[in-house]
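My main concern about presentation is that the manuscript never shows what a single data entry looks like. An entry of this sort, consisting of the sequence and the corresponding backbone structure tokens, reads as follows:
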Amino acid sequence: MSSRKKTGRSAHAETTDVSMQLRNLTGIRLQDFIYILTKKKFFSRIDINHAYHHIPIHEKDIEKTAIITPFGYFDFPRMTFGLRNAVQTFQRFLNHTVLQGLDFLFAYIDDIIIASDDIEQHRRHLKALFSRLNTCDITINLSKCAFEKDKIDFLDYEVSTSGISPLEEKVKAIVAYPRPKTIVELRRFLGRLNFYRSHT
């Protein structure tokens, strides 16, 4: 989203872009962490409710979020989806403020994965996480959470006590994919294959 300042310049043009690479967001490669997860016995997935809305926008920058609708002129006092650098800002907020020091979990934007060696340890981990979320006034979406599982879906993979594998529906989608007829279709198909090439 961009807005036009009184000077006539686009506020979007003056925004500093923040790297989107996963390693910069989380401090670890996703593939590395997924293999760490496979050594654990119990898993929970926590979904943060309206994730971006937990971050207030500086008062002087609220006008930059303005939108015009048939019902009037509106702006956002809290960060919303679609703002440049929203993903990176929220991930850093989680890593360096909310979850700092909790080394038994992995946060990827609004999903938090907890992995533990046994059920007693897992419940201690959950208690520690919920205490931290409560302290930081972070709410969760219970309907999208999963607790104390021996396997869990995470970013198009199934992670379990026996290992890691692509989700069955994703494999079926690749098998049923129509034969590419153009370069664009071929590139799209290869993109799907590349995501799972380490499992072939």
